[in-house]
Structure formats: C-alpha cells, structure tokens
Design brief:
Layout (H helix, E strand, L loop, with lengths): L7 E4 L8 E7 L3 H6 L2 E3 L9 E8 L5 E12 L10 E7 L2 H13 L3 E2 L4 H8 L5 H12 L3 H11 L2 H25 L7 H22 L2 H9 L1 E7 L5 H9 L17 E7 L2 E7 L9 H16 L2 E7 L17 E6 L15 E2 L8 H13 L14 H22 L4 H19 L5 H8 L7
Parallel strand pairs: 1-7, 8-10, 8-11, 11-12, 12-13
Antiparallel strand pairs: 1-2, 2-6, 3-4, 4-5, 5-6, 9-10
Amino acid sequence: MTFSNDTIAAVATPFGQGAVSLLRLSGPQAREVFARCWRGRALYDPRRAALGKIVRPGPDGGATVVDEGLATFFPGPASYTGEDVVEFTGHGGVLVTRRVLDALLAAGARLAEPGEFTQRAFLQGKLDLTQAEAVMDLISAQTDLALQAAQEQLAGRLGASIESLREDILGLLAHVEAYIDFPEEDIDPDTGSALRKRMEAARTAIDRLLATADQGRILREGVRTVIVGAPNVGKSSLLNRLLGFDRAIVSDIAGTTRDTLEEVINLRGLPLRLVDTAGLRESSDALEQAGIERSHAALSRAELVLEVADGTQPCDRFQSAAPTGKPRVLVLNKADLNEHPSWLGAEAVRVSCTTGAGLEALAEAIEILLTGGSVAGTSDLIAINARHQACLQRARAGLDAAHTLLAAAQPPELVAEELRAALQAVGEVVGEADPEELLGVIFSRFCIGK
C-alpha cells in the first residue's frame, strides 16, 4: 500500500459496459489536475454539477475530445476522503471510460491502489477502522441482514461501543497508575474490590461483542449447507424449491445427480451456500461413484447438513450420513403422501417438495439452529469480524490477568502492564494503534476506486 498525499484517480464503477461510468480524483491537486483536461464551466461551486468535455492534449498542441459529461467538485474536508475530490460522470463504455482515465493520469494524477480512497478517509479521520471495513461489507452484502449489519457498523455503532470500552479501561489504568505514582499508598481492599468489579464490567462488555462473532461470520461469508441423502429422496427437488427455480435436474431414475451443485440463497436474511450432492449408496458405476466421493468431501466441509429422507419409507432404511458434531436438520420429504408409521415421533421437519408445504417450518428450524433466533428482526445489529475478534480476545486476556494480579495483591506495576496491553488491543479494533502493514492488508481487499 502506498502512503502519500499525491493526487490519485480511478474508475469507481464496475468494469464493463453500462449507461454511465464514474471516475474519481482525490488529493491536494485534484481540481488543478482535472482542470488540465476539462473544457467546461470552472469547478468553483462545491457539490454543483457542471457540464463539459474531457480532452487529451495532442503532440501538435491541439486537444482531442474524449468524452462529455458532468463534473462535481467536493472540497476537503467535506468530502468522502477528507481531501479535495472531483467526480466525473460520463458515458459507460469500456473504451471511453479507459480513455478518460488515461487523460486524468496524463494530466498528473496517479492510478489509485485498491481501497486507497477509503484508506485516505481513515487517515484523515473521516472514518474509524471499523467503519472503513464496513464499506467493503456494504458492497459485498448478499442479504438484508448483512446489509443492515454493515450499515450499523458504517454508522459507527461498533466504533462507539469500542470507544466506550477504551474509556473504561483507560479509567482503570489511570486509577492503578495513581498508586504507582504514590508508592506510599497501597491499594486498600475496598478500592481493590471496586476496581475488580469495574474490570468484570469491562470483560462483560467484551463478551457481549465476542458473542456476535459467529453471527458476523454467517452474515459475511454465508453458511455452507450440504443437502445429503439416499438416491430419489428429493434432494434436488428440495434445492429447486429453496432456490425458487429449477437448478438441478429431477428424475425418478436413481443416480441422476453425478456432481455437486452449489447456489446461494437468502433465507430470512441469512446467506446459505446450498450444495446438492449425489445420492449416497453403493454403486459399481465409475461416474456415479466419483459423484458419491465428492458428496463425502462436501460433507466433510459442511457447516450445516440438511439430511433428506423419504417419509413414506420405513424409518429403519434410513442411515444418517451426517458427520458427528455437525449442525443437522432431518428433513422428511413427501409429506403430501402417507407417512410411514415408523417415523411417528421422529424429530424432523416434514416437507413436500411437490406442494411446497413445510418449507417455512424448515426455514425457521435452520434459523433457530444457526442463530438461536437472535439475529432476524433485530433493530440493533452489531456483528464483529475475525480481526475484531482476535483483538478483543487479547483484550479480555489482559483484563483477566489484571484481575487475577489485583486479587492476589500483586504490585500495581504488574496490573498496569496488563491493562495497557488490554487498552492497546481494544484500540487496534478502531485503528488507534494499527501499524501500516496491517492497514495495507485490510485495504488491499477493496476494489480499485473505493
């Protein structure tokens, strides 16, 4: 990642042909660089679009018109990056967009690196690190709940929670260091008890945030959900029903599915990566056997197993293929037909892939299994990511150590050292103590132009 204050430029819209394209410049010379290839009303009025042409000077002193469109000037610090920003909206062809970018680069801008605009917003104090990460979550959100979680984080709810936690730990550290400055004063039992209670309150706040890590992973990455069962029990039919269209071939002939099929669905705000598999049975057919081997491989990587059985057949014919310890829902298909008496009392979700009956009950069972019902419908959604989780776990370890040392009446210098470690770990969540290397890793995952 390049750390500089020069002027950068990039295409901010996705690659490909469209109605319009957006190009963005940011930096101390953004307006001046843009003016070198702009022929239209001067960009003096902030946030007011101006019509004009982009030109590229020729070797003979003339200029070639590249595109015509609207330009808008956003003076810093009242801009996305906190710097002077110019945005140009032109025609959305691949070639013409490239030629406009070439003109901007020839005029003195540098091509932006992935995430550099948002990185500059962070460095200028427009966003904390959690909000900067939320920008990418917002772009990649596949469900309403993932979108809501990203919006909550972008609005600063996670950052505010972290800042409150930092203030609590900082207060604890200041209290302990006061005793270090005055060695003749010992931490009396009452004061020590009060400090330990404050540490416990901070640990509780950390635990509440850590409890959202699994929900955050589900919302951001989805849940790899493998549909398994014997041949002809309705696995492909269930996949098609959940998707809402015919993705998999359905046939009465056993062994029709020879390979795994994968699709993503939005189930009550939760992204599920559904994987349909070949029916599990003994087979001498080499092609079918290869599909069955892939089914077992998919099962080993599954985060949720939907095990489908034919409810019209005897229960003793069913043999579970789900690996031990994997979250699992038993789905009894063909609920529109008479259920075999041997299934009476079985803990399963009854569905009919023919009529669609029972699909809402299946969705509810999956939601409860994955979230305990604590995500859907919530108005205040905080969901930390893996980086936040690692920082908060270190912070909790520091608080635990400080609590233990204080309870054992150890020197306050040792308690303060653990509190400092906890404070730094919490600060890293919002970017208060992040090295440049970490920032480079985070922002390199962004698309160019953002």
